[in-house]
């Protein structure tokens, strides 16, 4: 019996401890990055906003983009009204955006909308770089400045900080703010410091036309952002991180809408884990490629809520074993050290999120959040088409 218990604990402890050690290293490297010198303000941008029935929020997003601190003749806001049945196109056009309407019910999804926009921009010839911003977002005024100064210094793929627009709506959005800060800010700072890729996070990313000529956009999965970031890595390109600029997207707080969104994200992520982890590891081992190795580790480390669940099970199992057999106390010490590493990572995310003490108290809801996510993940299959997330208004 003890041997079987030890085998089970080993099977749980090894991946959990390695994941938490990886997160601890990234936490220790997450100090603020030094911004580069100012740009020459000569890069021309197309800001692409893919939108599917986003009449409730599209005006706010377009107004935010038109207020960017950048020469007005050096950027355009292109809204891709993709298979829309509402007033998205008319509202965006009235606000000053250029609108491209796309109708293709056979090829539905954000990836197809982006491919359509990128092809249009390539033939149009106005821009040197393309920026992707979601239709429910607001951006910092220095967005294009942060991108341009790095493009002038050789970067070809970039990601700004992706935060939460409505963090204080509910305990759910506060927990998501902490988790996204840990995932996007803490880890991206560390990766930039290490010289690897921060990956593409779906909102607030940029790629040059020159790079698209080398690595065409062909990402159509539920997590098309991660998929394209992996394609860039396999082509030898890393995604640079812009710490001083940000885009903030709206997170839903109601359980039903949040469940739909979470199911789509996590089914897509697990599908990519199955299809891409081994190719990335193979490339890393064959060529000593740190970018591919880090992206493989990023896929292998499950979302924070699942890591937290594994740590709790490890703590409970090792505590019970130590109570039964005191000689097995090292298992408990390992579990405590693993929990401490994860807690430091979460605390760093909370500290940088700016959510305040209320967010720290909301961490007590983590067990409920984990159970909710498990129920969502085990629910019905996530749709392959672009299903609009229910909005809660501007």
**Strand order in the largest sheet:** 3-2-1-4-7-6-8-5
> What does the overall shape look like?
globular
Can you summarize the main beta sheet? Answer: 8 strands, mixed
CATH architecture of the largest domain: Alpha-Beta Complex
- Give helix and strand order, one letter per element, not per position: HEHEHEHEEHEHEHHEHHHHHH
Number of domains: 2
Q: Which percent bin holds the helix content?
A: 55-70%
**Do you know the CATH topology of the largest domain?**
Spore Coat Polysaccharide Biosynthesis Protein SpsA, Chain A
Radius of gyration (Å): 22 Å
Keywords:
single chain, 394 residues, alpha/beta, Spore Coat Polysaccharide Biosynthesis Protein SpsA, Chain A, 2 domains, eight-stranded mixed beta sheet, 14 helices, 55% helix, 12% strand, globular
Explain what you see.
It is a single chain. This protein is of the alpha/beta class and 394 residues long. It has 2 domains: 2-30 and 302-377; 45-275, Spore Coat Polysaccharide Biosynthesis Protein SpsA, Chain A (Alpha-Beta Complex), CATH 3.90.550. 55% of the residues lie in helices and 12% in strands. Helix 1 (2-28) packs parallel to helix 12 (329-353), helix 9 packs across helix 14 and helix 11 (304-324) crosses helix 14. The longest helix has 33 residues, at 255-287. The chain is globular, with a radius of gyration of 22 Å. It starts with a helix and ends in a 17-residue tail after the last helix. The model has no long low-confidence stretch (mean pLDDT 90).
